[in-house]
Amino acid sequence: MTLAEAYAACREIAKREAKNFYYSFRVLPRHKSDAMCAVYAFMRRADDIADDESMPIEQRRLVMANWVDEWRQSRDGAATQDPVFLALNDSQRRFRIPDQLLEELVQGTTMDLDQQPPEPGQVQTYATFDELYRYCYLVASVVGLVCIRIFGYSDPRAEKLAEETGVAFQLTNILRDVKEDAERGRIYLPLDMLREHGMSAETVIALAAGAPLTRGNRQMLSQLAAQAEKYYQSADKLLPLIDADGRAALWVLVAIYHRLLGKIRTADGDVFSHRISVPTGEKLWVLGRGAAMSLTNRVRR
Fold this sequence. Notes:
- By secondary structure, the chain is mainly alpha-helical.
- The chain folds into two domains: 1-97, no CATH class; 118-301, Farnesyl Diphosphate Synthase (Orthogonal Bundle), CATH 1.10.600.
- The chain is built from 15 helices and no strands.
- Helix 9 (157-176) packs parallel to helix 14 (244-266) and helix 13 runs antiparallel to helix 14.
């Protein structure tokens, strides 16, 4: 398999699966877009193994361990015909992505798989916001730290800002997916914040099952949304630190995710009666603005 074929295979995965992310890939120069598709395809493969409920969790762990071992060997120079490994290894060399970041990427993607699954009637929870922040770091901030190496930056302040931007994105995902996660035995709303509003894990499960939202429930969700809003301020500070030809891609991502948070806040926390999303037409409008921004930034270089 040629490198061009490997990147083409990753692009097909991204087109099919990436949704919000793929909108941002389209406003990048081709070599950066290829690298983003490679990283996404790698994450998607890990996600698919971790979430494949057709296999018992012990089997998934074994499949994941073998897959990660094969990737590490290919990274160290062993021959491989896996298109995702070929493309990712080339992108890692081209954009000087540290091994540690990719290892953390795998750790974050497989975090739920590594934990003991809850017994029937039990739920997986996070005791404090600090614990939740660590989870967000591994599943989202690390992605941001990889992405900015592809987008390009020189100011070291960009790294902390990218970390906090990733947390903003993941908190938005958590708010949107409260119902679906609760149905799977996972509650990412921190228990200390729930208690502040007279709630518990059982309250969230009841809401997912159709219990009416109370004022206290809405206030709790609003508090977490306000926390996410604070981290979006880091995204605003990060944008001017990104290289000109990568800046539009980050802007598109931030614009779509921030609009999603805005729709959750407009719904006053009602993420239970229907799944909140940004309409395709609105995403295309954002993409159009991003494309114009990308062209302008490249002309100015």
